[in-house]
Design a protein that fits this description.
The complex is a heterodimer of chains A (1213) and B (377). In chain A, 40% of the residues lie in helices and 17% in strands. Chain A has 39 helices and 37 strands. The longest helix of chain A has 73 residues, at 1140-1212. The N and C termini of chain A lie far apart (164 Å). Chain B is α+β, with helices and mostly antiparallel strands and 377 residues long. Chain B contains eight helices and 18 strands. In chain B, the strands form five sheets. In chain B, strands 1-2-5-4 form a four-stranded mixed sheet, with helices on one face. The two termini of chain B are 29 Å apart. The chains are: A alpha+beta (1213), B alpha+beta (377). At the A-B interface, strand 13, helix 21, helix 25, helix 28 and helix 33 of A face strand 1, helix 1, helix 6, helix 8 and strand 17 of B. Chain A: Residues 1-40, 426-597, 717-766, 1164-1185 are annotated as: Disordered.
């Protein structure tokens, strides 16, 4: 045993005969797959089972497929909106504070409005708390990406939780994470576990199986436990989100900061005047375009008057490779709760020192004057500039005095130019006057800040810095601001310093309409503002900052005006020039054709070159213009000399003439090029397949290339053997070749791409092989069952790539023009003419959202929806009762009509919604794309105990007219009946009505069908009708008709944001009739028929039984009615006393009658005698006859007997 | 609130563009000073006829024309479509109306089946042949298929008096596809229609011969159909003309056409040979300009590009026509969409190819437009 350790191990032989033998024995075979080794095991053994299996796998596969969408997520996404939702007293604010603290290590005392924090290297979060108002819940459900649904575990689910879940389901289901709080209220551990499980399962049925539910077990120092919050935050920061249809197609902004930029002076004079507000926030959803339509839920529809992007106040951390965030990168931005430090605006920097932005305070401060002097100044109704306006000045003795109005008129257009940072709306209607006002407004605002608000002040140095930082944006802004194009600053120093950048300006035709003084080409405008404007601007800003009183302010204004006057003349010239330039361009464009001299081939070539070089800047031509063409100007001078020839140009430029030209899309060139010439023909030679191709496509080149690869072939006819040039030994020894190639490749250090010629044979071969493989793959591999699906996905991916790449390297200022403001940008949106209540009653706890929409969606029409009453809602809904509907961005009240579609597509009106069925609801409301979900509530107040969501549905169709019908039965009664014809009255009122219904089907109650035939003259409205059988007089005849019902055109936006804070949750719109009656305790007027009356019973009349005579005859006697003649009453006879003549006549008649009677009697007697006589005679004759016959018979029988006897005798014999 | 903001314009030019864009964008349009300074002020009959056509096509639109006809307010309704019959005014050809229809047709509630009567061919507007040959292939790219897309010339009617009839049908879509069409490829064939009504049938042959004489130098694959109408199908006035279309290997169609002077015009009667030659030259000019869509269809292509989803669309065109330029301005004011217009970069290798004038690449991002009229079930 001891030797075991020392013993040598057996070593296999490595060489020699034994080793050889072993090797031969278990020779290595190529690896076989199990299927190859044992094919039987893999054969189909149970056909049915396999079929089922395959079907199942296919089912699962297909279920996984979604309709592929083009991925439009931006590279730098906006912060994720997290809504913290739950009933009151559930711990929402605490959770928000804890989350913020977790990310930023800061504790926010008083959170109001959205809070944006940086949560990680690639993610930012906007946290919002949702108050217990159904308006806020609806608005937040529309914008939240993730919902933290807080539930008080000690209480269980509350109605608000379910309401919110249902709101979410309608408006696209965001991610929902449940959070259970108040778990420390449980004393019993087992009870807690049970509750947790019960709540979890209930939550799962509402959201989805396995939805995440978080438990926050207890509080430590008024905060949730740190580790639990940390875990929750980790879940949040790795969460993935699904795209929601509505948000993919609509841009929106969750406003996180709001400023009132109305002129304080106008507010002072008219405290209820419409306001101009600027709102700030990240663009989300999709691209938001300047001047597009937006909806402010809770306020109304507006269009953006101006918009620009600002530097991100809460930027994503730098892309350095670090694991954790640097403390400097843990940013927090919450201007509404006074956190965020430095805020950059377009023309100022605000340093916020906590809560000074609360606008309420601002208003109060405005109301309280500092001292008497200020107060007296503030109360001046006619400020100095207005006084100046009314004053007059005479320059020369014989001229009319100049008023300010004149100056303004002249310098209207130029006014804005002085202060370039102010931007105006694109509409020209409010041209210069409002512009001037606006510019004052902003100035005053800055002044206001510095002067009145002690806590926030405007540092000039900072503003300058800011300008340098965002100079590019600013210049862009200015160009937009000076949109009219009238302010072209052509000072010589301007030209020197003017940035040579394209500046886009926007005008519409209507701008010209309002401003006739400008002679500008149709829509092309000119705006070039140099940098020096900026500097003067900032200087002015300085002035304003220093200025302390209104009077100085107005002084400045006057100065400006004077300046403007100086520039005025030049400017007006400029305008003309700008117009001319464009015309020049056009002319030049045409000149190319006009200058043609047909027989000069050289000229043709030259012109071709010229065309190549002479490129039209289409952007400039179409959308605006930047620089002036100096050359063009000079040319003008040369042409015109001292006097400019303007007439012709005027014709071109004058919009009145070009505006009324023939409207045709066909563009016939004025003069054709002389296509007979060979040179000119050559210009397009290669447009045809017969021309030259480019090298990648040229057949000859391709053929040559092929020759190189597969060059060797033997011409069988001639016996020649052709070789491809270059490598002969390709096929012979590939391996060698490969090695050589490898060596070559290693040897060459150059990285540059090789040209075709340089590529080695190997490379070329590889390329070829790759192509072939691709071809093969396309043909066979892709052709699966989901080839279509894959292709679709591929196409979408390509589109997404193109979308990203197209504008990637473009400057933001330009890019915004093409795309709009892309999601993720921080923008400032100016809105005009907003109601003052919005800002006066502003409450940061209510979310303020700007929902962008297509221009069509601002229109109103009939919206047909498929609707179902919510199964938890207690009441059924009645047609024509107003309903508050949340659809798209909007919340509004409208009057729906419910209907159901019959089999013949007739929409039949329903009085009430069916209990458990879908029905159609049609109302007058905003045009919203089909397929959008909607939600209806009857009242917004939370006073009612039950579930508030009345119905949910989806938009089906939009139209400007709607056909809903109601059944209407017209009844009448027959008044005359002939067999199957009857005359009916009471159904119509006039002949005309009847004629309209001729041929209509009618029916009796008993079911006899008929038809209206013809109107009768009398009685009015009666008609002849025929029936399939005879009807009775007692029948009621009715006709079934369909009566179109008008949908009431009522549409009222829910303006909950405009209400004072106390009433915000209780917006009341149109009331139902029932509500009004209840309020005023008005009883419904009862129907006459349903009232109880004393019963009066009539005595029953029984008609006598009449049996027809024929029938009586057939009856046995005892059943026949024995009607005895009533005895005549002897006493009631009346004695008739005749006149003598009458008596005589009477007597005579009686005698004649008696005579006649006697005659008849005697005649009868005689006849009887005669008849009896005749009878006797006949009897006698009969007796004789009978005797004779008897005798004859006797004789015959005797003879017969004799004969018989004879015969018998013979027989015997 | 209904109607949103009002857009104001002046003058009668680009009348159709404004009404069409208004209908599609839902914005109200006011046009003032329509021929206010002319001897014959106000709307012409053909414009009134176009308004009537729009009225038939839409539901709930409100059109107010002032007494003199110099100002019009158009509040668009929703597009309905369906079966439409319209007597087009003979001052302009059916092409004038049909261009408007094609722009609106994909966005109707029901597919359009329109019967248009009037002048089929004249010298001002693109004829029905041209629309069929060059507009339809473009439309097809946006619709996806050409199923249900049809234009049938039932009767041909030449310029002054007309008497022609065409049926136009087009399917409607919820959404249009984005277009990427930057390489037209080379022209592989030239086709055409030489038509004649109320003149000798030999006229068509004369036109064909003269056109071929010019075009044969470039490509051999030319076939021009002769289309001579007789009797009731031939309209009310005599005329003849030629429509030529060049088809490229990638499916771009470049079209040119010409027709005879209308009866009783100042220029006197036209000679068939001249028409043939001139049309051929016009086609060469069009080829020189080049692009994936020809000059008449630039505006329609631009319209459908912006009415797509929020995707980038790209198309190559020749130099923009004044009509298109104005259209792009209008598009900007109605939809706030700008086009990126850049000259096409020619690679070094292809620089020596003689492919005519400079080409442009038009790029834009769709506004995410969807058909709001069509019902979903």
């Amino acid at each position: 045993m001891e030797e075991d350790g020392n013993q040598k191990k057996h070593r296999k032989r490595q060489a020699g005969p034994k080793a050889e033998k072993k090797k031969a024995k278990n020779k290595h075979q190529q690896e076989l797959t199990p299927q190859q080794r044992n094919p039987k095991a893999f054969a189909i053994q149970h056909a049915q089972k396999t079929a089922k299996l395959i079907r199942r796998t296919q089912d699962i596969k297909t279920k996984k497929q979604h309709i592929p969408l083009v991925d439009r997520t931006p590279l730098e996404p906006p912060p994720i909106v997290i809504a913290i939702v739950g009933p009151p007293k559930v711990g929402k604010s605490t959770l928000l504070q804890c989350i913020v603290k977790n990310f930023t290590k800061q504790r926010l005392a008083n959170v109001q409005g959205p809070v944006t924090v940086v949560s990680g290297k690639t993610r930012r979060l906007t946290l919002m708390e949702c108050n217990n108002d159904i308006n806020s819940m609806i608005d937040l459900a529309k914008v939240a990406d993730l919902v933290l649904l807080l539930v008080d575990a000690s209480f269980g689910f509350e109605m608000e939780t379910f309401e919110f879940l249902n709101i979410c389901q309608v408006h696209g289901f965001p991610r929902i994470m449940g959070v259970l709080t108040h778990l420390d209220a449980f004393k019993d551990n087992k009870q807690m576990r049970k509750t947790k499980k019960r709540l979890k399962h209930r939550f799962w049925t509402e959201v989805y199986q396995g939805a995440k539910l978080f438990y926050l077990s207890g509080m430590v120092n008024e905060e949730y436990q740190k580790t639990e919050v940390h875990n929750l935050c980790r879940f949040i920061s790795v969460m993935k989100f699904r795209p929601l249809q509505w948000r993919l197609t609509h841009p929106y902004i969750v406003v996180d900061r709001i400023e009132d930029i109305t002129d304080p002076e106008t507010i002072r004079q008219k405290p209820k005047c419409d306001r101009k507000l600027s709102m700030y926030g990240y663009v989300r959803g999709t691209h938001l375009k300047n001047h597009s339509m937006i909806h402010l839920p809770g306020c109304g529809d507006y269009s953006i008057s101006d918009m620009q992007s600002l530097p991100d106040p809460c930027p994503m951390p730098d892309k350095e490779k670090k694991k954790t965030l640097h403390i400097k990168e843990r940013l927090i931005y919450a201007p509404m709760s006074g956190v965020g430090g430095v805020i950059y605006d377009k023309d100022a920097v605000y340093i916020d020192l906590g809560g000074s932005h609360s606008l309420k305070q601002n208003v109060e401060e405005n109301d309280v004057p500092m001292n008497e002097l200020v107060a007296s100044l503030m109360n001046v109704n006619n400020p100095l500039d207005q006084k100046m306006g009314t004053s007059q000045m005479t320059l020369f003795s014989n001229t009319a005095p100049i008023t300010e109005a004149d100056i303004e008129e002249d310098s209207e257009a130029d006014d804005e130019e002085g202060i370039a940072r102010v931007r105006r709306s694109a509409e020209f209607n409010d041209a210069a006057a409002t512009n001037q006002k606006q510019e004052k407004q902003t100035e005053d605002l800055v002044f206001d800040d510095s002067d009145e608000e002690d806590e926030s002040f405007n540092l000039f140095s900072n503003s300058v810095k800011n300008q340098t930082v965002s100079s590019s944006e600013r210049t862009e802004n200015e160009s937009i601001g000076s949109e009219s194009g009238s302010d072209s600053n052509s000072d010589s120093d301007d030209e020197e310093t003017s940035s040579k950048k394209l500046k886009l300006s926007r005008t519409t035709v209507d701008s010209k309409a309002s401003d006739s003084s400008k002679i500008v080409d149709a829509n092309v405008t000119l705006s070039s503002i140099g940098k020096n404007v900026d500097t003067t601007d900032t200087l002015k800003g300085l002035k304003f900052d220093n200025s302390n009183s209104e009077t100085e302010d107005s002084d400045d204004d006057i100065e400006e005006e004077e300046d403007d006057e100086n520039e005025e003349d030049e400017d007006s010239e400029e305008e003309e020039d700008s117009g001319e330039d464009i015309s020049d361009e056009e002319e030049e464009d045409e000149e190319g054709n006009l200058k043609w001299k047909a027989n000069l081939a050289a000229a043709a070539a030259e012109s071709f070159k010229k065309r190549q070089t002479e490129r039209i800047n289409y952007r400039k031509l179409i959308y605006g213009k930047v620089e002036e063409d100096k050359e063009g100007e000079e040319e003008d001078d040369e042409l015109g000399g001292l006097f400019k020839v303007l007439k012709k140009k005027d014709e071109k430029n004058n919009p009145n003439i070009s505006a009324n030209m023939t409207d045709s899309s066909k563009c016939v060139p004025d003069k054709l090029q002389s296509w007979e010439l060979e040179e000119i023909q050559d210009l397009i030679r290669d447009c045809f397949v017969t021309g030259n191709w480019d090298k990648s496509e040229d057949a000859k080149a391709l053929l040559e290339q092929d020759d190189e690869l597969f060059g060797d072939f033997e011409d069988l006819e001639t016996g020649e053997i052709h070789h491809g040039d270059g490598e002969d030994d390709v096929d012979d020894d590939e391996e060698n070749d490969d090695k050589e190639d490898d060596e070559n490749a290693n040897g060459e250090p150059s990285v540059r791409k090789k040209t075709k010629a340089e590529k080695t044979a190997m490379e070329r071969r590889m390329e070829k092989k790759k192509k072939l493989k691709e071809l093969f793959d396309n043909e066979y591999d892709m052709k699966g069952d989901n080839e279509f699906y894959d292709n679709w996905k591929l196409a979408n991916e390509e589109q997404a790539k193109l979308n990203r790449a197209e504008f990637e390297n473009m400057e933001d200022s330009l890019r915004v023009g093409y795309e709009g403001f892309r999601p993720g940008m921080y923008v400032r949106v100016e809105l005009d003419r907003l109601p003052c209540e919005l800002i006066n009653n502003f409450d940061a706890t209510y979310p303020l959202i700007l929902g962008g929409q297509q221009s069509v969606e601002g229109n109103i029409g009939y919206v047909q929806t498929r609707l179902k009453k919510h199964r938890w809602y207690k009441k059924i809904l009645k047609s024509r009762n107003p309903l508050i509907i949340s659809l798209g961005w909007r919340r509004f009240q409208s009057i729906p009509l419910y209907s159901i579609q019959d089999h013949n597509f007739r929409n039949r009106l329903l009085k009430y919604t069916p209990q458990h069925l879908h029905c159609h609801a049609c109302f007058w409301g905003p045009i919203t794309p089909q397929g959008t979900g909607l939600l209806a509530v009857e009242s917004l107040t939370g006073s009612e105990p039950g579930f508030r969501i009345a119905a949910t549905g989806v938009v089906l169709e939009l139209d400007k007219s709607m056909q809903i019908v109601k059944k209407l039965k017209l009844t009448g009664t027959p008044y005359k009946i002939y067999k199957k014809t009857a005359f009916v009255q009471g159904m119509f009122n006039s002949m005309l009505e009847v004629t309209k219904f001729e041929g209509a089907k009618i029916r009796t109650v008993s079911g006899i069908r008929g038809q209206v035939k013809k109107a009768l003259k009398t009685p009015e409205g009666a008609f002849r009708a025929t029936f399939e059988d005879k009807i009775l007089l007692s029948d009621i005849v009715f006709m079934r008709t369909w009566y179109p019902v008008e949908v009431p055109q009522f549409y009222a936006t829910v303006t909950s944001l405009l209400l004072p804070p106390a009433e915000k949750a209780a917006w009341v719109g149109m009331k139902t009739l029932g509500q009004l009656k209840r309020e005023r305790s008005i009883m419904a007027p009862p129907k006459e028929d349903s009232l109880y009356k004393p019963v009066e019973r009539k005595k029953r009349y029984e008609p006598t039984l009449k049996i027809p005579k024929d029938l009586q005859k057939m009856l046995p006697f005892k059943d026949t009615p024995k009607v005895l003649k009533a005895k005549e009453d002897p006493y009631k006879r009346v004695a008739v006393i005749l006149e003598p003549h009458e008596a005589k006549v009477n007597k005579m008649m009686k005698m004649v009658q008696n005579l006649y009677r006697h005659k008849l009697k005697s005649d009868k007697m005689r006849m009887r005698e005669r008849v009896s006589k005749h009878q006797k005679e006949m009897d006698r004759i009969g007796v004789i006859k009978a005797r004779k016959q008897k005798q004859v018979k006797k004789d015959i029988y005797r003879a017969l007997g004799k004969l018989q006897k004879k015969n018998e005798k013979y027989k015997k014999d | 609130m209904s109607g949103g903001n009002i857009m104001s314009f002046e003058g009668c030019n680009y009348f159709r563009q404004r009404l069409i864009l208004s209908t599609l964008s839902g914005k109200t349009v006011r046009i003032k000073k329509i021929r206010s300074k002319e001897d014959d002020p106000g709307l012409k009959d053909f414009e009134a006829s176009f308004i009537r056509l729009l009225d038939k096509l839409t539901n709930g639109s409100n059109i107010v024309v002032n007494e003199t006809g110099t100002s019009i307010l158009y509040q668009p309704g929703l597009l309905v479509g369906g079966k439409i019959e319209h007597e087009c005014n003979t001052q302009r050809s059916i092409g004038y109306y049909l261009e408007g229809l094609t722009c609106l047709a994909p966005f109707t509630k029901k597919p359009i089946h329109a019967v248009l009567k009037g002048v089929t061919n004249d010298q001002i507007d693109p004829s029905v042949d041209m629309i069929k040959l060059s507009t339809f292939p473009v439309l097809k790219r946006f619709l996806g298929t050409d199923e249900g897309l049809e234009l049938k010339i039932v009767r041909r009617g030449a310029a002054p008096e007309g008497g022609g009839e065409v049926t136009f049908s087009c399917p409607c879509r919820q959404k249009l596809r984005p277009l990427q069409f930057t390489d037209p490829g080379k022209i592989k064939r030239i086709r055409g229609v030489a038509w004649a009504v109320r003149v000798a049938p030999v006229v068509t042959n004369r036109i064909v011969d003269s056109a071929r004489s010019v075009l044969n130098k470039f490509i051999p694959d030319i076939y021009i159909y002769t289309d001579h109408y007789k009797g009731s199908q031939s309209g009310k006035s005599p005329g003849f003309g030629l429509t030529l279309v060049a088809e490229t290997i990638n499916g771009a169609f470049l079209c040119a056409e010409n027709s005879s002077n209308p009866k009783g015009s100042d220029k006197g009667p036209s000679v068939p040979e001249d028409i043939g030659k001139e049309t051929a030259k016009l086609l060469l000019e069009e080829i020189y300009k080049g692009g994936c869509v020809d000059s008449t269809n630039q505006s329609m292509t631009a319209l459908f590009m912006i009415l797509g989803q929020q995707d980038v669309s790209k198309v190559q065109t020749g130099p923009l026509t004044p009509y298109t330029i104005q259209f792009l301005r209008h598009v900007y004011s109605f939809f706030d969409v700008m086009f990126k217009i850049e000259p096409q970069q020619v690679s070094e290798e292809d620089e020596d190819l003689r492919t005519g004038g400079e080409k442009l690449i038009l790029t834009c991002v769709g506004v995410g437009y969807s058909n709001i009229s069509k019902a979903v079930s």
